[in-house]
Design goal:
Elements (H helix, E strand, L loop, with lengths): L2 H14 L2 H4 L2 H8 L4 H8 L3 H7 L2 H10 L15 H8 L4 H5 L1 E4 L6 E8 L4 E11 L4 E4 L2 E7 L3 E14 L17 H4 L6 E3 L8 E4 L18 E2 L7 E9 L3 H7 L9 E2 L10 E2 L1 H4 L18 E22 L2 E4 L1 H7 L11 E2 L5 E16 L3 H4 L9 E6 L5 E7 L20 H13 L4 E5 L11 E5 L7 E4 L9 E11 L3 E14 L2 E6 L4 E7 L10
Parallel strand pairs: 5-25
Antiparallel strand pairs: 1-2, 1-16, 2-3, 3-6, 4-5, 7-8, 8-14, 9-10, 10-13, 11-12, 13-14, 13-16, 15-16, 17-18, 17-25, 18-19, 19-20, 20-22, 21-22, 22-23, 23-24, 24-25
Length: 539
């Protein structure tokens, strides 16, 4: 080939390339760094050159780092690349990204911290618990009939019980109910179940449906699938799955002004522009989920809520009477007093000719978790009390709270504060500080609760931290110099009945410690800020 022909070939090849491909690699990488994971995948499908560029490890490492606060992700282990690591945990990266998750379990609720462990390449979540190390109290000098309950909380993760564990494995193998998964036959309950025989119900006769191999698996969206978590054991199973974002019309139609608020989660006391159906609203006829509570596309998928299902699997004795029929032990069935639900292809152990064991699903728990807008718990110079707090609730133990301070309707102009005549510079600076910090309302909402006032309810509120709500500056130990403002405390009877707000007082000890004086009960209890970021790095 002559030089002329070679030059013409190069020109023709260049004309076939896109303008993006003709740019220097460093400029292409800079452009691609602004793309989302989905856009990167779309770009990589256009040509071999862009596939190579869009698969660059540093691009996917940055995408992972955006979802992992508190630590630096330096290696894709156990995956071969950061792109593979991202794919292994997609679409669950929102779990460590928002880190704080609270559940609608019973009246007490549950608070978990989700983080990424780079040593194992897994997403893990543990329950946050607290205990008060101090059991002492003292009378208050301002009123000797008032008891001050000392508070020295120990806040830690309950490491003995893993709530979430998602290992970086092939996502298809970890989708327990995915029709494309090799694990489908093991976990899909609809293809192998024992149905009570109508003709011999008194004898405990159960007919067996065709085996999984003979039933074609239904095609199901990956977003509808439950992913089995690696913290499952031989007897205890746990799966995690997505839920759907509710529209404003759905919320208006389903919500109720009274507890439990139409089973919408999070409840109205917690500011959120992102709500889903709570656990009770998801169920229809026992264990079956209403299809309208599950996402049908990524646009429907909530990245600020999810559901965990746990259940206990046990076995009862039985006897095979034919290839299609099993007789369960009548005594075992009557003692269980539960409908049978077989889990997997090993639900019936027919290794013996006559004696078999039947796997039972019992004790199922469903918990819907939601997260918080970081703005709600991130303190600022003007809103220093925002945060996650732990409070002393006497016989109920320690409970976790979200303390919020809403933004001002109109921005506060600090420059409008001017020195007064005969006011020293120090006095002016203190007054200016007080007017900036001590203004507007404050509200504390329970993230975990108790039988009297449950999770998701306001525990106390202050109408104004400023002059309108000021009672006095305390002159007595141990609160000398502390600002005291009017507040209202939320109380109720067991089962959250006959609840009401009573007059109380809030003592603003510091930005990290508060005290609530329950005047009607004659005691002062403390609250202390929790450093959530301190739990994000695995030990």
């Amino acid at each position: 080939m002559s030089h002329l022909e070679h030059g013409a070939a190069v020109v023709m090849a260049a004309e076939e390339l896109s303008r993006l491909e003709l740019l220097p690699p460093e400029l292409v990488y800079s452009i691609l760094s602004y793309l989302s994971p989905f856009d990167l995948v779309a770009v990589s499908a256009t040509s071999r050159i862009l596939y190579t560029r869009a698969s660059a490890d540093h691009l996917w490492q940055a995408l992972i780092q955006e979802n992992v606060p508190g630590i630096q992700v330096r290696t894709p282990a156990p995956c071969r690349s950061f792109k593979a690591l991202y794919r292994a945990h997609d679409p669950y990266w929102y779990l460590p990204k928002y880190k704080i998750w609270f559940a609608d379990v019973n009246l007490t609720g549950r608070l978990i911290i989700v983080r990424y462990d780079p040593r194992r390449g897994c997403i893990e979540g543990y329950q946050l618990v607290a205990a008060n190390r101090s059991r002492t109290f003292q009378p208050w000098e301002a009123n000797r009939n008032v008891s001050i309950h000392h508070f020295d909380p120990v806040v830690q993760l309950h490491m003995d019980k893993t709530m979430i564990q998602l290992d970086a494995v092939d996502s298809a193998d970890s989708l327990a109910f995915d029709s494309d998964s090799p694990a489908w036959a093991r976990f899909n309950t609809i293809n192998l179940r024992l149905v009570r025989s109508r003709t011999s119900s008194r004898e405990g006769n159960f007919s067996r449906s065709p085996s999984p191999a003979s039933v074609a698996p239904p095609k199901r969206s990956r977003l509808l699938c439950e992913r089995r978590m690696q913290n499952s054991t031989d007897s205890m199973y746990a799966t995690i799955f997505h839920t759907r974002v509710l529209s404003s019309d759905e919320i208006s139609f389903c919500a109720s002004p009274k507890f439990p608020y139409g089973f919408i989660w999070p409840p109205p006391a917690i500011p959120s522009g992102h709500r889903v159906f709570g656990t009770a609203a998801k169920l229809s006829g026992g264990r079956h989920f209403k299809p309208e509570t599950r996402p049908s596309s990524r646009s429907d998928l909530s990245d600020k809520a999810f559901v965990i299902k746990t259940w206990l699997a046990t076995r009862i004795p039985g006897r095979a009477v034919s290839n299609m029929s099993v007789i369960a032990d009548p005594l075992a069935v009557s003692m269980m007093n539960l409908p049978l639900a077989v889990q997997g292809d090993d639900a019936v152990d027919d290794s013996l000719d006559d004696d078999v064991s039947i796997r039972m699903q019992i004790g199922q728990e469903l918990a819907t978790y939601a997260t918080l807008d970081p703005k709600l718990y991130t303190p600022t110079k003007e809103k220093p009390f925002r945060g996650i707090w732990v409070g002393d609730y006497s016989g109920h133990g320690c409970e976790f709270l979200l303390v919020t301070q809403p933004d001002d309707e109109t921005p506060f102009d600090a420059e409008s504060i001017q020195p007064r005549e005969e006011e020293s510079p120090d006095e002016f600076e203190k007054r200016k500080y007080d007017e900036i910090v001590y203004r507007g309302p404050l509200e504390a909402v329970k993230l975990t609760g108790d039988p009297n006032v449950p999770r998701g309810e306001v525990t106390f509120r202050v109408a104004d931290l400023g002059e309108r709500g000021l009672i006095n500056i305390c002159q007595y130990e141990p609160f000398e110099g502390v600002r005291i403002v009017k507040s209202q405390g939320h109380v109720g009877s067991t089962g959250f009945v006959n609840d009401s707000f009573i007059e109380s007082q809030l003592l603003l000890i510091s930005h990290d410690r508060l005290a609530q004086y329950w005047s009607e009960f004659g005691h002062v209890s403390f609250l202390q800020r929790v450093d959530i970021d301190g739990f994000l790095a695995p030990a």
